[in-house]
Design goal:
Largest sheet: 3 strands, antiparallel
Distance between the termini: 98 Å
Order of helices and strands: EEEHH
CATH topology of one domain: first zn-finger domain of poly(adp-ribose) polymerase-1
Number of helices: 2
Strand content: 5-15%
CATH class of one domain: Alpha Beta
CATH superfamily of one domain: Zinc finger, PARP-type
CATH architecture of one domain: 2-Layer Sandwich
Radius of gyration: 35 Å
Helix content: 55-70%
Number of strands: 3
């Protein structure tokens, strides 16, 4: 999906993120959706971009590669680049948290497996002890029977 960044030409467009109007002259970000028989642009305030959209933008070369970026005033380019960095940092933090959560989950799983293995070993040891006691008891019984006869 191609993207475009420009200054709003009027105050009629609405942000698909926050649902408020985008004022004339305000920087807006557009996702261009080509339906074949017509093209539709979904506009957002630059501040309303989310991590997923920024990840998609990065796949096509980053915010600086988006059509219209070079036409913006330097201050507006800087704001957009800052927003892109913020979103990247948020996405990285979420990925890190997800990785840590996954590692904790794997550790809990491994701990449960170790506990199950220990329990299995304890049961096997208890069974071995019972069988040894049973054999010992049987041997004593045979010995007693031999003495009685």
């Amino acid at each position: 999906m191609p993207y475009i960044i420009e200054y709003a030409k009027s105050g009629r467009s609405s942000c698909k993120g926050c649902k408020t109007k985008i004022n004339e002259g305000e920087v807006r970000f557009g996702s261009v959706d080509d339906k074949g028989d017509h093209v539709m642009t979904h506009w957002k305030h630059a501040e309303c971009l989310n991590e997923k959209q920024m990840a998609n933008i990065e796949e096509v070369g980053g915010i600086a590669a988006v059509s219209g970026f070079s036409d913006l005033k330097p201050a507006d380019r800087t704001k957009l680049e800052k927003r892109a960095k913020e979103l990247r940092a948020e996405a990285d933090a979420k990925e890190q948290a997800k990785a840590e959560e996954l590692a904790e989950k794997e550790e809990r799983k491994a701990e449960r497996a170790r506990a199950a293995e220990e329990k299995k070993a304890e049961k096997a040891e208890a069974k071995r002890v019972r069988e040894a006691e049973k054999k010992e008891k049987a041997a004593k019984k045979r010995k007693a029977e031999e003495l009685d006869s």
